[in-house]
Design a protein that fits this description.
By secondary structure, this protein is an alpha/beta fold. It is 43% helix and 13% strand. The structure holds uridine-5'-diphosphate-xylopyranose (UDX) and adenosine-5'-diphosphate (ADP). The site of adenosine-5'-diphosphate has 21 residues, from helix 5.
Amino acid sequence: MKNILCIGAGYVGGPTMAMIASKCPGMAVTVVDVNEVRIKAWLSGKPPIFEPGLETLVKKSLGKNLFFSADVAGSIEKADIIFVSVNTPTKTFGHGAGRAADLQYWEKTARIILANAKTDKIVVEKCTLPVRTASAMERILHSGPGSVHFEVLSNPEFLSEGTAVQDLESPDRVLIGGSNTAEGQAAVKMLVDIYAHWVPRDRIITTNVWSSELSKLAANAMLAQRVSSINSLSALCEVTEADIGEVARAIGMDSRIGAKFLSAGIGFGGSCFKKDILNLVYLCEHYGLHQVAEYWKQVVVINDYQQERFVNSILRSMFNTVAGKRIAILGFAFKADTGDTRESPAIAVCRRLVEERAEVVVTDPEALDNARHDLADLVGKVTFEPDPYKAAKGAHALVVLTEWKCYETLDYACVFKSMAQPAFLFDGRRKLDHDKLVKIGFNVHVIGQSSMIRK
Ligand code: UDX
Ligand code: ADP
Protein backbone atom coordinates (compact mmCIF):
# COMPACT_ATOMS: atom_id res chain seq x y z
CA MET A 1 0.00 0.00 0.00
CA LYS A 2 1.30 3.46 -0.92
CA ASN A 3 1.04 6.21 1.64
CA ILE A 4 0.11 9.59 0.27
CA LEU A 5 0.31 12.77 2.32
CA CYS A 6 -1.06 16.16 1.36
CA ILE A 7 0.05 19.27 3.26
CA GLY A 8 -2.72 21.90 3.05
CA ALA A 9 -6.40 20.99 3.39
CA GLY A 10 -7.92 23.88 1.43
CA TYR A 11 -9.91 24.27 -1.78
CA VAL A 12 -7.30 22.31 -3.76
CA GLY A 13 -5.81 19.80 -1.29
CA GLY A 14 -9.09 18.60 0.26
CA PRO A 15 -11.09 17.80 -2.91
CA THR A 16 -8.05 16.44 -4.82
CA MET A 17 -7.12 14.02 -2.06
CA ALA A 18 -10.75 12.95 -1.58
CA MET A 19 -10.81 12.02 -5.27
CA ILE A 20 -7.50 10.12 -5.13
CA ALA A 21 -8.70 8.21 -2.04
CA SER A 22 -11.97 7.33 -3.73
CA LYS A 23 -10.30 6.14 -6.95
CA CYS A 24 -7.36 4.35 -5.31
CA PRO A 25 -8.80 2.29 -2.44
CA GLY A 26 -5.45 0.49 -2.10
CA MET A 27 -3.69 3.67 -1.05
CA ALA A 28 -3.83 5.49 2.28
CA VAL A 29 -4.33 9.23 1.87
CA THR A 30 -3.71 11.62 4.78
CA VAL A 31 -4.39 15.35 4.57
CA VAL A 32 -2.78 17.63 7.16
CA ASP A 33 -3.16 21.32 7.89
CA VAL A 34 -1.99 23.74 10.58
CA ASN A 35 -5.56 25.03 10.77
CA GLU A 36 -7.22 22.76 13.34
CA VAL A 37 -10.69 24.19 12.75
CA ARG A 38 -10.47 23.16 9.10
CA ILE A 39 -9.22 19.69 10.02
CA LYS A 40 -12.08 19.21 12.51
CA ALA A 41 -14.58 20.14 9.80
CA TRP A 42 -13.10 17.64 7.32
CA LEU A 43 -13.09 14.96 10.03
CA SER A 44 -16.77 15.58 10.78
CA GLY A 45 -17.58 14.67 7.16
CA LYS A 46 -18.91 18.18 6.52
CA PRO A 47 -16.16 19.91 4.52
CA PRO A 48 -15.16 23.45 5.53
CA ILE A 49 -15.74 24.59 1.93
CA PHE A 50 -18.97 24.48 -0.07
CA GLU A 51 -18.50 22.45 -3.24
CA PRO A 52 -21.30 20.46 -4.92
CA GLY A 53 -20.81 16.69 -4.52
CA LEU A 54 -17.82 17.04 -2.19
CA GLU A 55 -19.50 15.88 1.01
CA THR A 56 -20.59 12.60 -0.61
CA LEU A 57 -17.13 12.08 -2.08
CA VAL A 58 -15.42 12.63 1.28
CA LYS A 59 -17.82 10.41 3.20
CA LYS A 60 -17.12 7.56 0.77
CA SER A 61 -13.50 7.18 1.97
CA LEU A 62 -13.36 9.00 5.32
CA GLY A 63 -11.81 6.78 7.99
CA LYS A 64 -11.25 3.97 5.44
CA ASN A 65 -8.35 5.26 3.37
CA LEU A 66 -8.85 9.03 3.75
CA PHE A 67 -7.60 10.63 6.95
CA PHE A 68 -7.28 14.20 8.19
CA SER A 69 -4.90 15.39 10.89
CA ALA A 70 -3.38 18.55 12.36
CA ASP A 71 -0.10 16.75 13.09
CA VAL A 72 1.95 17.94 10.12
CA ALA A 73 5.42 16.96 11.36
CA GLY A 74 4.32 13.56 12.65
CA SER A 75 2.71 12.56 9.34
CA ILE A 76 5.73 13.09 7.11
CA GLU A 77 7.95 10.07 7.68
CA LYS A 78 5.43 7.39 6.79
CA ALA A 79 4.51 9.04 3.46
CA ASP A 80 5.97 7.86 0.14
CA ILE A 81 4.56 10.81 -1.79
CA ILE A 82 3.95 14.26 -0.32
CA PHE A 83 1.68 16.71 -2.15
CA VAL A 84 2.20 20.35 -1.16
CA SER A 85 -1.01 22.31 -1.41
CA VAL A 86 -0.51 25.27 0.88
CA ASN A 87 -1.57 28.80 0.02
CA THR A 88 0.70 31.02 -2.06
CA PRO A 89 -1.06 34.41 -2.04
CA THR A 90 0.30 37.59 -3.61
CA LYS A 91 2.89 39.27 -1.39
CA THR A 92 1.53 42.22 0.56
CA PHE A 93 4.86 43.50 1.88
CA GLY A 94 8.46 44.15 0.89
CA HIS A 95 10.09 43.45 -2.46
CA GLY A 96 7.56 42.41 -5.12
CA ALA A 97 4.59 43.45 -2.92
CA GLY A 98 1.32 43.34 -4.87
CA ARG A 99 2.83 41.14 -7.60
CA ALA A 100 5.17 38.36 -6.52
CA ALA A 101 3.92 35.20 -4.82
CA ASP A 102 4.32 35.06 -1.05
CA LEU A 103 6.26 31.84 -0.62
CA GLN A 104 6.57 31.83 3.17
CA TYR A 105 4.04 29.01 3.72
CA TRP A 106 5.55 27.00 0.92
CA GLU A 107 9.10 27.42 2.27
CA LYS A 108 8.02 26.52 5.82
CA THR A 109 6.51 23.37 4.37
CA ALA A 110 9.75 22.46 2.58
CA ARG A 111 11.66 22.90 5.83
CA ILE A 112 9.24 20.83 7.89
CA ILE A 113 9.50 18.03 5.31
CA LEU A 114 13.30 18.20 5.49
CA ALA A 115 13.28 18.14 9.30
CA ASN A 116 11.04 15.07 9.54
CA ALA A 117 11.88 12.84 6.57
CA LYS A 118 14.24 9.95 7.24
CA THR A 119 13.63 8.04 3.99
CA ASP A 120 13.44 9.11 0.32
CA LYS A 121 10.31 11.01 -0.72
CA ILE A 122 8.61 12.25 -3.84
CA VAL A 123 7.43 15.81 -3.25
CA VAL A 124 4.70 17.08 -5.55
CA GLU A 125 3.98 20.80 -6.01
CA LYS A 126 0.23 21.10 -6.26
CA CYS A 127 -0.09 24.79 -5.46
CA THR A 128 0.56 27.36 -8.17
CA LEU A 129 4.10 28.59 -7.92
CA PRO A 130 6.41 30.83 -9.91
CA VAL A 131 8.44 29.07 -12.59
CA ARG A 132 11.62 27.47 -11.22
CA THR A 133 10.21 27.10 -7.69
CA ALA A 134 10.66 23.34 -7.89
CA SER A 135 14.41 23.74 -8.16
CA ALA A 136 14.36 26.13 -5.18
CA MET A 137 12.39 23.51 -3.23
CA GLU A 138 14.89 20.87 -4.25
CA ARG A 139 17.74 23.03 -2.93
CA ILE A 140 16.03 23.55 0.43
CA LEU A 141 15.17 19.87 0.71
CA HIS A 142 18.74 18.84 -0.04
CA SER A 143 20.28 21.41 2.31
CA GLY A 144 20.17 19.06 5.30
CA PRO A 145 23.02 16.92 6.62
CA GLY A 146 21.30 13.58 5.80
CA SER A 147 21.39 11.45 2.66
CA VAL A 148 17.63 11.39 2.08
CA HIS A 149 16.76 11.95 -1.60
CA PHE A 150 13.81 14.17 -2.50
CA GLU A 151 12.45 14.10 -6.03
CA VAL A 152 10.36 17.19 -6.75
CA LEU A 153 7.56 17.05 -9.33
CA SER A 154 5.22 19.75 -10.55
CA ASN A 155 1.60 18.65 -10.86
CA PRO A 156 -0.58 21.78 -11.08
CA GLU A 157 -4.28 21.47 -10.41
CA PHE A 158 -6.70 22.82 -12.99
CA LEU A 159 -9.98 22.31 -11.11
CA SER A 160 -12.48 25.16 -11.02
CA GLU A 161 -14.42 25.89 -7.87
CA GLY A 162 -18.09 25.02 -8.10
CA THR A 163 -17.30 22.13 -10.46
CA ALA A 164 -14.28 20.73 -8.59
CA VAL A 165 -15.65 17.21 -8.19
CA GLN A 166 -16.52 16.78 -11.85
CA ASP A 167 -13.25 18.44 -12.95
CA LEU A 168 -11.29 16.00 -10.78
CA GLU A 169 -13.34 13.02 -11.91
CA SER A 170 -12.94 13.82 -15.59
CA PRO A 171 -10.09 16.28 -16.14
CA ASP A 172 -9.31 17.67 -19.61
CA ARG A 173 -5.72 16.73 -18.82
CA VAL A 174 -3.41 15.94 -15.93
CA LEU A 175 -0.01 17.61 -16.18
CA ILE A 176 3.09 16.21 -14.53
CA GLY A 177 6.50 17.83 -14.78
CA GLY A 178 9.63 16.02 -13.67
CA SER A 179 13.35 16.09 -14.20
CA ASN A 180 14.99 14.07 -16.94
CA THR A 181 17.11 11.92 -14.63
CA ALA A 182 16.38 8.23 -13.96
CA GLU A 183 15.02 9.10 -10.48
CA GLY A 184 12.96 11.94 -11.95
CA GLN A 185 11.38 9.72 -14.58
CA ALA A 186 10.69 6.95 -12.04
CA ALA A 187 8.89 9.49 -9.83
CA VAL A 188 6.89 10.78 -12.81
CA LYS A 189 5.85 7.21 -13.64
CA MET A 190 4.71 6.61 -10.06
CA LEU A 191 2.48 9.69 -10.17
CA VAL A 192 1.18 8.85 -13.65
CA ASP A 193 0.20 5.40 -12.36
CA ILE A 194 -1.83 6.95 -9.52
CA TYR A 195 -3.87 9.14 -11.89
CA ALA A 196 -4.21 6.27 -14.39
CA HIS A 197 -6.54 4.57 -11.87
CA TRP A 198 -9.28 6.74 -13.39
CA VAL A 199 -7.86 9.17 -15.98
CA PRO A 200 -7.24 7.81 -19.52
CA ARG A 201 -3.47 7.67 -20.10
CA ASP A 202 -3.65 9.86 -23.21
CA ARG A 203 -4.94 12.67 -21.01
CA ILE A 204 -1.96 12.46 -18.66
CA ILE A 205 0.83 14.53 -20.13
CA THR A 206 4.38 14.74 -18.89
CA THR A 207 6.81 17.62 -19.44
CA ASN A 208 9.90 19.07 -17.88
CA VAL A 209 9.34 20.78 -14.53
CA TRP A 210 9.51 24.35 -15.82
CA SER A 211 7.03 23.79 -18.66
CA SER A 212 4.62 22.34 -16.14
CA GLU A 213 5.00 25.28 -13.76
CA LEU A 214 4.64 27.82 -16.56
CA SER A 215 1.67 26.01 -18.14
CA LYS A 216 -0.39 26.55 -15.01
CA LEU A 217 0.30 30.30 -15.02
CA ALA A 218 -0.24 30.46 -18.77
CA ALA A 219 -3.57 28.60 -18.67
CA ASN A 220 -4.97 30.90 -16.00
CA ALA A 221 -3.59 34.00 -17.73
CA MET A 222 -5.19 33.03 -21.05
CA LEU A 223 -8.54 32.23 -19.43
CA ALA A 224 -8.51 35.55 -17.61
CA GLN A 225 -7.47 37.28 -20.82
CA ARG A 226 -10.60 35.96 -22.55
CA VAL A 227 -12.77 37.35 -19.77
CA SER A 228 -11.05 40.75 -19.98
CA SER A 229 -11.32 40.72 -23.80
CA ILE A 230 -15.07 40.14 -23.75
CA ASN A 231 -15.50 42.63 -20.91
CA SER A 232 -13.59 45.30 -22.83
CA LEU A 233 -15.98 44.77 -25.73
CA SER A 234 -18.96 44.94 -23.37
CA ALA A 235 -18.05 48.60 -22.71
CA LEU A 236 -18.22 49.28 -26.43
CA CYS A 237 -21.56 47.48 -26.72
CA GLU A 238 -23.15 49.67 -24.07
CA VAL A 239 -22.52 52.80 -26.15
CA THR A 240 -23.17 51.41 -29.64
CA GLU A 241 -26.41 49.42 -29.18
CA ALA A 242 -24.56 46.21 -29.96
CA ASP A 243 -25.33 43.40 -27.50
CA ILE A 244 -22.37 41.54 -26.00
CA GLY A 245 -24.42 38.33 -25.73
CA GLU A 246 -25.05 38.38 -29.48
CA VAL A 247 -21.43 39.30 -30.21
CA ALA A 248 -20.12 36.50 -27.97
CA ARG A 249 -22.42 34.00 -29.69
CA ALA A 250 -21.34 35.14 -33.13
CA ILE A 251 -17.62 34.99 -32.44
CA GLY A 252 -17.83 31.88 -30.25
CA MET A 253 -19.27 29.85 -33.14
CA ASP A 254 -15.94 30.18 -34.89
CA SER A 255 -14.40 26.85 -33.92
CA ARG A 256 -10.98 28.52 -33.74
CA ILE A 257 -12.26 30.84 -31.01
CA GLY A 258 -14.73 28.55 -29.22
CA ALA A 259 -17.76 29.46 -27.15
CA LYS A 260 -16.48 28.96 -23.60
CA PHE A 261 -15.30 31.72 -21.28
CA LEU A 262 -16.97 34.47 -23.25
CA SER A 263 -19.54 35.52 -20.65
CA ALA A 264 -19.23 39.23 -20.07
CA GLY A 265 -19.82 40.29 -16.50
CA ILE A 266 -18.60 42.17 -13.51
CA GLY A 267 -15.07 40.81 -13.92
CA PHE A 268 -13.16 37.78 -12.78
CA GLY A 269 -12.45 36.98 -9.15
CA GLY A 270 -11.19 33.92 -7.33
CA SER A 271 -7.88 33.12 -5.71
CA CYS A 272 -6.04 32.28 -8.95
CA PHE A 273 -6.52 34.56 -11.94
CA LYS A 274 -5.26 37.86 -10.57
CA LYS A 275 -2.56 36.23 -8.49
CA ASP A 276 -1.24 34.16 -11.38
CA ILE A 277 -1.21 37.05 -13.85
CA LEU A 278 0.62 39.27 -11.37
CA ASN A 279 3.03 36.42 -10.83
CA LEU A 280 3.58 36.16 -14.59
CA VAL A 281 4.08 39.93 -14.82
CA TYR A 282 6.63 39.80 -12.02
CA LEU A 283 8.51 36.95 -13.69
CA CYS A 284 8.61 38.78 -17.02
CA GLU A 285 9.93 41.91 -15.33
CA HIS A 286 12.52 39.85 -13.48
CA TYR A 287 13.82 38.55 -16.81
CA GLY A 288 13.73 42.03 -18.40
CA LEU A 289 10.74 41.25 -20.65
CA HIS A 290 9.01 44.56 -19.97
CA GLN A 291 6.75 44.59 -23.05
CA VAL A 292 5.50 41.10 -22.22
CA ALA A 293 4.86 42.18 -18.62
CA GLU A 294 2.91 45.25 -19.83
CA TYR A 295 0.82 43.08 -22.16
CA TRP A 296 -0.39 40.76 -19.37
CA LYS A 297 -0.83 43.60 -16.89
CA GLN A 298 -3.60 44.97 -19.08
CA VAL A 299 -5.74 41.92 -18.30
CA VAL A 300 -5.89 43.03 -14.66
CA VAL A 301 -6.27 46.70 -15.60
CA ILE A 302 -9.40 45.91 -17.67
CA ASN A 303 -10.77 43.77 -14.85
CA ASP A 304 -10.50 46.67 -12.38
CA TYR A 305 -11.92 49.04 -14.99
CA GLN A 306 -14.96 46.80 -15.47
CA GLN A 307 -15.83 46.98 -11.78
CA GLU A 308 -15.34 50.74 -11.61
CA ARG A 309 -17.39 51.18 -14.78
CA PHE A 310 -20.22 49.13 -13.28
CA VAL A 311 -20.32 51.24 -10.10
CA ASN A 312 -20.24 54.42 -12.18
CA SER A 313 -23.21 53.20 -14.22
CA ILE A 314 -25.13 52.57 -10.98
CA LEU A 315 -24.38 56.11 -9.82
CA ARG A 316 -25.22 57.72 -13.16
CA SER A 317 -28.49 55.82 -13.53
CA MET A 318 -29.63 56.60 -10.00
CA PHE A 319 -29.53 60.37 -10.55
CA ASN A 320 -25.84 60.66 -9.62
CA THR A 321 -26.32 59.80 -5.97
CA VAL A 322 -26.82 56.67 -3.91
CA ALA A 323 -26.27 58.41 -0.56
CA GLY A 324 -28.81 57.09 1.94
CA LYS A 325 -30.31 54.68 -0.62
CA ARG A 326 -30.69 51.01 0.24
CA ILE A 327 -28.93 48.84 -2.32
CA ALA A 328 -29.36 45.07 -2.22
CA ILE A 329 -26.40 43.05 -3.47
CA LEU A 330 -27.57 39.69 -4.83
CA GLY A 331 -24.56 37.40 -4.60
CA PHE A 332 -21.18 37.95 -2.99
CA ALA A 333 -19.27 34.78 -4.03
CA PHE A 334 -16.79 35.23 -6.90
CA LYS A 335 -18.88 32.81 -8.97
CA ALA A 336 -21.92 30.59 -8.43
CA ASP A 337 -21.83 27.27 -6.54
CA THR A 338 -19.08 28.27 -4.15
CA GLY A 339 -18.92 30.14 -0.86
CA ASP A 340 -15.46 31.45 -1.78
CA THR A 341 -15.14 35.23 -1.90
CA ARG A 342 -11.40 35.59 -2.49
CA GLU A 343 -10.88 38.51 -4.93
CA SER A 344 -14.63 38.59 -5.54
CA PRO A 345 -15.65 41.68 -7.56
CA ALA A 346 -18.41 42.10 -4.97
CA ILE A 347 -15.82 43.27 -2.44
CA ALA A 348 -14.74 46.25 -4.57
CA VAL A 349 -18.32 47.08 -5.63
CA CYS A 350 -19.63 47.09 -2.04
CA ARG A 351 -16.72 49.20 -0.84
CA ARG A 352 -17.31 51.77 -3.58
CA LEU A 353 -21.03 51.91 -2.82
CA VAL A 354 -20.31 52.45 0.88
CA GLU A 355 -17.88 55.23 -0.06
CA GLU A 356 -20.80 56.81 -1.88
CA ARG A 357 -22.74 56.45 1.39
CA ALA A 358 -25.22 53.89 0.15
CA GLU A 359 -26.90 51.62 2.68
CA VAL A 360 -25.64 48.25 1.41
CA VAL A 361 -27.34 44.94 2.22
CA VAL A 362 -25.68 41.75 1.03
CA THR A 363 -27.40 38.44 0.40
CA ASP A 364 -25.85 35.18 -0.80
CA PRO A 365 -26.85 31.53 -0.30
CA GLU A 366 -23.34 30.31 0.69
CA ALA A 367 -20.91 33.19 1.07
CA LEU A 368 -22.30 35.36 3.88
CA ASP A 369 -19.77 34.24 6.51
CA ASN A 370 -16.88 35.08 4.19
CA ALA A 371 -18.60 38.34 3.17
CA ARG A 372 -18.87 39.38 6.83
CA HIS A 373 -15.17 38.72 7.23
CA ASP A 374 -14.22 40.59 4.01
CA LEU A 375 -16.22 43.68 4.98
CA ALA A 376 -15.56 43.50 8.74
CA ASP A 377 -14.17 47.06 8.78
CA LEU A 378 -17.46 48.44 7.37
CA VAL A 379 -19.47 47.44 10.39
CA GLY A 380 -22.70 49.45 10.63
CA LYS A 381 -22.47 50.42 6.95
CA VAL A 382 -23.23 47.02 5.44
CA THR A 383 -25.77 44.47 6.63
CA PHE A 384 -26.03 40.79 5.75
CA GLU A 385 -29.33 39.04 5.08
CA PRO A 386 -29.70 35.41 3.98
CA ASP A 387 -33.22 35.94 2.59
CA PRO A 388 -33.13 37.79 -0.79
CA TYR A 389 -36.74 38.97 -0.38
CA LYS A 390 -35.93 40.61 2.94
CA ALA A 391 -32.74 42.11 1.45
CA ALA A 392 -34.73 43.64 -1.40
CA LYS A 393 -37.50 45.05 0.81
CA GLY A 394 -37.37 48.85 0.71
CA ALA A 395 -34.32 48.84 -1.58
CA HIS A 396 -33.90 51.41 -4.35
CA ALA A 397 -31.83 49.00 -6.41
CA LEU A 398 -30.95 45.33 -6.82
CA VAL A 399 -27.41 44.61 -7.97
CA VAL A 400 -26.73 41.07 -9.20
CA LEU A 401 -23.08 40.17 -8.70
CA THR A 402 -23.09 36.35 -8.66
CA GLU A 403 -24.89 34.14 -11.19
CA TRP A 404 -26.63 31.96 -8.58
CA LYS A 405 -29.52 30.03 -10.17
CA CYS A 406 -31.79 31.00 -7.27
CA TYR A 407 -31.75 34.63 -8.43
CA GLU A 408 -33.17 33.65 -11.81
CA THR A 409 -36.34 32.30 -10.23
CA LEU A 410 -37.17 34.96 -7.63
CA ASP A 411 -40.71 36.32 -7.76
CA TYR A 412 -39.60 39.66 -9.16
CA ALA A 413 -43.16 41.05 -9.35
CA CYS A 414 -43.41 40.60 -5.60
CA VAL A 415 -39.88 41.97 -5.08
CA PHE A 416 -40.72 45.02 -7.21
CA LYS A 417 -43.77 45.85 -5.10
CA SER A 418 -41.67 45.80 -1.92
CA MET A 419 -39.04 48.22 -3.28
CA ALA A 420 -38.68 52.01 -3.26
CA GLN A 421 -39.67 53.55 -6.58
CA PRO A 422 -38.41 54.00 -9.22
CA ALA A 423 -36.88 50.55 -8.79
CA PHE A 424 -33.57 49.76 -10.48
CA LEU A 425 -31.96 46.46 -11.33
CA PHE A 426 -28.30 46.21 -12.34
CA ASP A 427 -27.39 42.83 -13.77
CA GLY A 428 -23.65 42.22 -13.54
CA ARG A 429 -24.01 38.64 -14.75
CA ARG A 430 -26.51 38.82 -17.63
CA LYS A 431 -28.50 35.79 -16.53
CA LEU A 432 -31.95 37.26 -15.76
CA ASP A 433 -34.98 37.63 -18.04
CA HIS A 434 -34.61 41.35 -18.72
CA ASP A 435 -37.72 41.82 -20.90
CA LYS A 436 -39.84 40.35 -18.12
CA LEU A 437 -38.21 42.63 -15.55
CA VAL A 438 -38.92 45.70 -17.68
CA LYS A 439 -42.55 44.61 -18.04
CA ILE A 440 -42.80 44.33 -14.26
CA GLY A 441 -41.62 47.94 -14.03
CA PHE A 442 -37.89 47.81 -13.28
CA ASN A 443 -35.35 50.13 -14.87
CA VAL A 444 -32.91 47.51 -16.07
CA HIS A 445 -29.19 48.02 -16.69
CA VAL A 446 -27.26 45.05 -17.99
CA ILE A 447 -23.51 44.85 -18.56
CA GLY A 448 -22.82 44.82 -22.31
CA GLN A 449 -26.08 46.17 -23.71
CA SER A 450 -28.14 49.35 -23.84
CA SER A 451 -30.12 50.27 -20.75
CA MET A 452 -33.82 49.41 -20.61
CA ILE A 453 -35.33 52.46 -18.91
CA ARG A 454 -39.03 53.00 -18.07
CA LYS A 455 -40.24 56.27 -19.61
C1 UDX B 1 -9.74 29.02 -12.36
C2 UDX B 1 -9.39 28.10 -13.54
O1 UDX B 1 -10.55 27.96 -14.39
C3 UDX B 1 -8.92 26.74 -13.04
O2 UDX B 1 -8.51 25.93 -14.12
C4 UDX B 1 -7.77 26.94 -12.06
O3 UDX B 1 -7.38 25.70 -11.51
C5 UDX B 1 -8.17 27.88 -10.94
O4 UDX B 1 -8.63 29.14 -11.49
P1 UDX B 1 -11.82 29.28 -10.71
O5 UDX B 1 -11.15 30.54 -10.28
O6 UDX B 1 -12.28 28.33 -9.66
O7 UDX B 1 -10.85 28.44 -11.68
O8 UDX B 1 -13.12 29.67 -11.58
P2 UDX B 1 -13.40 30.03 -13.11
O9 UDX B 1 -14.60 29.28 -13.53
O10 UDX B 1 -12.21 29.93 -13.96
O11 UDX B 1 -13.86 31.57 -13.00
C6 UDX B 1 -12.95 32.59 -12.63
C7 UDX B 1 -13.64 33.92 -12.67
O12 UDX B 1 -13.92 34.33 -14.01
C8 UDX B 1 -15.00 33.97 -11.94
O13 UDX B 1 -15.10 35.16 -11.22
C9 UDX B 1 -16.00 33.90 -13.06
O14 UDX B 1 -17.23 34.49 -12.72
C10 UDX B 1 -15.28 34.71 -14.14
N1 UDX B 1 -15.73 34.36 -15.51
C11 UDX B 1 -15.49 33.13 -16.02
C12 UDX B 1 -16.39 35.32 -16.26
O15 UDX B 1 -16.61 36.45 -15.80
N2 UDX B 1 -16.78 35.00 -17.54
C13 UDX B 1 -16.56 33.77 -18.09
O16 UDX B 1 -16.96 33.56 -19.26
C14 UDX B 1 -15.91 32.80 -17.31
P1 ADP C 1 -6.03 26.71 -2.08
O1 ADP C 1 -7.21 27.42 -2.69
O2 ADP C 1 -4.75 26.88 -2.88
O3 ADP C 1 -6.28 25.28 -1.72
P2 ADP C 1 -6.38 27.46 0.71
O4 ADP C 1 -6.02 28.73 1.39
O5 ADP C 1 -7.81 27.05 0.61
O6 ADP C 1 -5.67 27.51 -0.73
O7 ADP C 1 -5.64 26.24 1.41
C1 ADP C 1 -4.30 26.22 1.79
C2 ADP C 1 -4.20 25.55 3.17
O8 ADP C 1 -2.82 25.38 3.48
C3 ADP C 1 -4.82 26.35 4.32
O9 ADP C 1 -5.84 25.59 4.94
C4 ADP C 1 -3.62 26.62 5.27
O10 ADP C 1 -3.99 26.53 6.64
C5 ADP C 1 -2.68 25.49 4.89
N1 ADP C 1 -1.28 25.74 5.26
C6 ADP C 1 -0.56 26.86 5.05
N2 ADP C 1 0.70 26.71 5.51
C7 ADP C 1 0.78 25.45 6.02
C8 ADP C 1 1.84 24.68 6.63
N3 ADP C 1 3.06 25.17 6.80
N4 ADP C 1 1.55 23.42 7.03
C9 ADP C 1 0.30 22.91 6.84
N5 ADP C 1 -0.72 23.58 6.27
C10 ADP C 1 -0.49 24.83 5.86
